[in-house]
Write a structure and sequence with these properties.
heterodimer; A: mainly beta; 13-stranded mixed β-sheet; four-stranded mixed β-sheet; 4 helices; 17 strands; 10% helix; 29% strand; elongated; B: alpha+beta; Alpha-Beta Plaits; 2 domains; two-stranded antiparallel ribbon; 24% helix
Amino acid sequence: MALKLKLHTQPDVPMEADCICPNRMQSLSDNEIENLTVFHGNRQVKLGDFFKCDGDNDGDIIIDGDLSNIKHIGSAMLSGKITVEGNVGVHTGAAMRGGEIIIQGNASDWLGPEMLGGRITVQGDAGHMVGSGYRGSTAGMQGGEIIVHGNVKNETGHVMRRGLIVVGGNAGDFTGVNMLAGTIIVLGEMGIRAGAGMKRGTIICQNKAEILPTFTQSCDYQPSFIRRYLKYLTTLGLSINESLINGPFERWCGDSVELNRGEILLYAGK
Amino acid sequence: MKIKSTEIVDTFAEAFKMFGSRIVITAATKEWAMAAAQSITGFATSVIGCKCEAGIEAEIPAEETPDLRPGVSVLLFAMDADSVGKRLMERIGQCVMTCPTTACYNGLQEGSSVTVGGNLRYFGDGYQISKLLGDNKLWRIPVMDGEFLIDDTFNVKESVGGGNLLILGKDQTATLKAAKAATKAMREIPDIILPFPNGVVRSGSKVGSKYKSLIASTNDAYCPTLRGIVDNSETEEGINSVLEIVIDGLTLESVEEAMRVGMTAAAKPGVKKISAGNYGGGLGQYQIQLHQLMDKQD
């Protein structure tokens, strides 16, 4: 039976609740879980002041409520599953290594920053800095998958080093900025300056996009690996246009202000 | 025991432990996938002379392949896992990577892994790109028609090689007809290949030779032309042609099933006997008794 957390009191200020994580709640009783410490603003309070806890922690946590003001859910998560029946706040899944977080609503900024493994699925939209590195950090996302069914804002995959980010809708500006490696797939449209400063890595977009002048168009071709990725995405519940699977892609190489080994692949079919 | 008028000899096929892999080749069209599959399985009839045994297992519909293109699955066997890895390297590098539009994937979930794409990537001369999708590492190697995509590693599992049937007929026409019917039925069984030309071998061999440098030589006991010359001839009067079907499989069960359906299909007018090759039971790890196989069917 899953552990159920129900938000009964909305925090007045942002709350840090990195204790909401299957590996941190493992083998704790409901009472012990409600006594876990969280930061409400700069004050230490008990999780039970905001959440009602019920059920057994078998590695599966279901959270009911609007958690837009709650930060760091599933931070450094190792295994198990968190399902949020609502929105989540910033830093959800920060540095997570394994397991799965499913967000049935929207996610705020800094979703899965410096993530190492596991999977985050957002059925709504996400904010800025999805799968990014913190400011000053040399590597962002280093493994795992972030699947956002809706739109995302700016700097998705900033200094991303490994892993997969999929955006079902549109992405904001600077997608894959300073990217080191990894794959970003945008099934909607991308904003300006995608791939700026990228060394390696792949950005794939279903639509035309404005490409920086420091990128060079190499060819139109039909890469087999995209077909493999798109087939995989269908297993994750994303709707993929068949023409995208079969279609040609424009390959742009860049960013020449850096290593010039990155690529942006834009669907070139009609 | 008889199937219709054909006698099933009370003997066994002596099969060996081998190591096998499944290679899934996809391409823009079925024809190109098949061209690569035929190329990779060329000169791979017997480990004795070819270092491996390989054959086409099946065509795969596009919707079932990893990249949604038409595919062909190929099985390749050798005597140890390292040898499988080496042969995969050589053959995928020379026969699949060279074939237009192809991609090449590991088709086995179980077993140990050998690095293939991870070595072939050096052909990319530094322009190769790795991708990690789930637990699968892929290599994209730039080639003149785009990219060659290949899995980093391929799985190798313990398998069974050398399952076999001997079809003893009254003449070449009847024996060929029976062998053709048998191979057609056997190809419907998954996890097996028939590595010889069209699945049939006429130059069956015995272990050793009068010539010291040879490890195998003609199976004189089954050569009709030597009846009356050799002491141990199995080609009694009325048997004027013998053909062998060799089966390699990923599991013992699949080899047995292939042999069973093969015997049933081969039992045609003009086929006097169906037997199997063995070395007295002292060499192979598996003894597949023909009568027991047919009893299973009952």
